[in-house]
Amino acid sequence: MSEKNEAEKIEELKGLIENANYVTFLTGAGVSVPSGIPDYRSKGGLYKRQKYEFPPEYMLSHDNLIKHPDIFHQFVVENMYFPDAEPNIIHTKMAEISNEKGTIVTQNVDKLHTKAGAKHVVEFHGNLYDNIHCLTCGKEFDYKEYIKDYRHHEDDGIIRPGTTVLYGEGINPDNIENAVAAIENADLIVVVGTSFKVYPFAGLLSYKNANTKLVAVNKENLDLDSSVLAITDDATNVFEKL
Prior knowledge:
By secondary structure, this protein is an alpha/beta fold. It has helices spanning about 5-20, 55-60, 60-65, 70-80, 90-100, 110-115, 145-150, 175-185, 235-240; strands at about 25, 100-105, 120-125, 130-135, 140, 150, 155-160, 190, 215-220, 230. This is protein acetyllysine N-acetyltransferase.
């Protein structure tokens, strides 16, 4: 029996979604690339750039926020904020499906799933726009104020950008609980636009039920086992056909 081509796999995914009782999407930076937001680990991604003093993992760390708030702020503003970005077909199609029967669990901090109208979203790593606050007094700020200045001049406090989980910090327990529930409830899990190398996010699949079907949509092969329906294609192309 010959191996299915990508078009046949997309048709299979379409059927799986139609027949599923509960679909959980696990998404990463690749989902937002068509909206003009760079990813992290691809050839031209954020983590491959060499223009900064420290490696990106340190630039996005709690330690850097506290010790070098000016450097942290510059990096985040230059590389992380894309307030004018609009959801693409992947976001809108996922919103449509998950609003009917499922959940989106995302690593992304850009809020584009919510902007697309998705009602059941677990922002595993938080986001850059909610609860921007002064670490000294707790006062909240709009992201536009944060982009201009990281200092709260009333008490000389450092302003923290949103609920985003930084390197060196733990994941919000509620996010872990909600993500695990989404995995356990699913009879279909679709992984889209992620290298699946960041833990604990990548470890969520350990909560998958044995009979739950797993699909991976990614430009690069993720080297998952043969039971996974692997669609090696641009996610935009795939979701346009669903």
